Amino acid sequence: MKIVVAIKQVPERDALVRIAANGKEIEERELQWAMNEPDAYALEEALLLKEKSGAVEVIVVSAGPERVGSTIREALAKGADRAIHVVCNHLTGCDALGVARMIAAAIKPENPDLVLTGLQSEDVGMGQTGVILAELLGLPHATMILQVEVIGAGLKVKRELEEGWFQQIELPSPAVLTMQSGGNKLRYATLMGIKRAKSKELRTVNAADAGAEGSSAIVLEQIALPKKQRHTQMLQGSAKEAAAVLVEKLKTEACVL
Amino acid sequence: MSVLLVLEQSGGKIKKASWEALAAAHRLAPSENITAVVIGGETEALAADAAAHSVSKVIRMEHPLLAQYTSDGFCSALQQLIQDQHPTHIVFPHTYQVRDFAPALACRMGQVLIGDVVEIEEGPRFVRQLMQGRLNGSYRHSGDGPCFVSVQAGAFRAEAREEPQRAQATIERFSPSIDAAQIRTQPGEPFRGSEQTVDLGSAQRIVGVGRGIKAVENLPMVQELATVLGAELAASRPICDNGWLPLERQVGSSGQTVAPKMYLAVGISGAIQHLVGMKGSQCIVAINKDSDAPIFEVADYGIVGDLFEVVPALTEAVKAAKE
User: Fold this and answer.
1) Nearest to B111 among A166, A171, A217 (CB)
2) Four-CA torsion B261, B321, A251, A245, nearest 10 degrees
3) What is the tens place of the pLDDT at every residue in A26-62?
4) In 3-state terms, chain A is what percent helix, strand and coil (to 5)?
């Protein structure tokens, strides 16, 4: 069984993000990067499936500029067997279809039995790459998956619905699944894993060579700070002072205590 | 401009999010140019409800294979309808179901869904959130073909039924051809994760806790604050993912939607998925170390500081105020 996990490198969760001078991108200088968290859960699920059945190869694929290599190495250190880096220096200029086309072109020759990815990225948050990937590869898909079970020639998955509801879905393999966070506990890379990762295959393919045509069906024209939805009173002073003022305001101004 | 509004139902009733999508559709076109579609195995009651709203036409798209939602069935049926009707815009509520099929449907037609839209500006330009709500991005549909848009829950005010004297919309049928072999997934019946023991929906006050709490050992400190406030304890997703609090206490798109008199967010940055579950609260207080955290965008009162100092101080202040 061959599992491909599509991962994205995103700014670290608490990173201070600034708008670039052109007003259309995020300023990348001085940013720290990390693996998109839902993608980390997708990788974890793949590694667990591998542990359950030895006959599994886990291949990670990621699109982006050179910096993406560090996140790919992290995935290899966690236990992925090999990796494909789709080198693309203008990821922010591609829409979800453009990115999915690149990844589809890179993984199609692998003929995977299962493709996993996170349900959405923490930066752009489109939440579409996995679903479009399935469409481009002509595979069935299921989204927001918490658990994956291989049964016979197919899969049985637990899907999250809204407001605390769930659903089992059965679908044939090969398939594409987008993984929700929290289904498993994430592992850390071990020292041995980091050492081993250095000798694992990391193949780079050029986005254009992969035969993927770009897409700009939708264009991000401007990035701006959000408009405030409420007038916020910021309470100053020490913790004690701010707490005292807050209680007073909750009692007399907001009348909620 | 002509809009096809895709209404979503649950348990035989059209969801509120669908009427919010109607409000968004009205930002693009007048009622005369809005067609709503109801989808299912049997749609008579749904269509009657839809026709009482401010749209010109309601299409009943019925097929036995649409009785239960599948991405394959919905994509095939809606593609046929779009090719028949030629709308310039297709508007959806941004629900889990739409997230499951709309990207594939748009892709099939060479388009990309502009998803989770919070505002529609002149142009039209569609505003959606980036970086977990820290920034807004303004998107434009370019090129030929229809524009697919889904709107975030709570971003537009749901439209009520028309006054009875207004003309009802016409109701038409559209029968897509779907072959059972096209449906590749077999969905099971929905089930609840666990027994409900707390009803956050009826709580007057809620203290929500997030990643900032750092370790499960720190939860009692927040619980004490909740207790003195007479509040229920709730959490953002990562806390429940870690198993620190049960799933039934999770607030947000994958958990409960709440609107208490007071919502106090402790160490919650305010990712979109959390905000949609609590931004309707009457009074929102946020305590966070990061002054840029999106939670402050929806807060009435904010304290930027170390929650490990602020929370105990607040507990003491509430106790003192009671004496």
Assistant:
1) A217
2) -110
3) 999 889 999 999 999 999 999 999 999 888 999 999 9
4) 30, 30, 40
Question: What token pair was written down for B162?
Answer: 């028309």
Q: Could you say which of B133, B186, B316 has the minimum Cβ distance to residue A226?
A: B133
Contact A239 B309 (CB under 8 A): yes
Q: Please state the rounded mean pLDDT for residues B171-188.
A: 97
What's the complex ipTM?
0.93
The contacts of residue B113 (CB under 8 Å, 6+ apart) are: A96, A128, B102, B103, B105, B106, B148, B149, B150
pLDDT at A151 over 90: yes
Alpha helices in A2-159 (DSSP H): 37-52, 68-78, 96-107, 129-137
Q: Do A216 and B143 touch (CB under 8 A)?
A: yes
pLDDT at A210: 66
Phi, psi torsion values for B150, nearest 5 degrees: -120, 145
Residue B281 near residue B263, CB atoms below 8 Å:
yes
- The label of the residue with tokens 């509520």 reads B93
pLDDT at B249 over 70: yes
To test the contact with chain B by mutation, choose from A232, A233, A248 the residue with the greatest count of B C-beta atoms within 10 A, namely A232
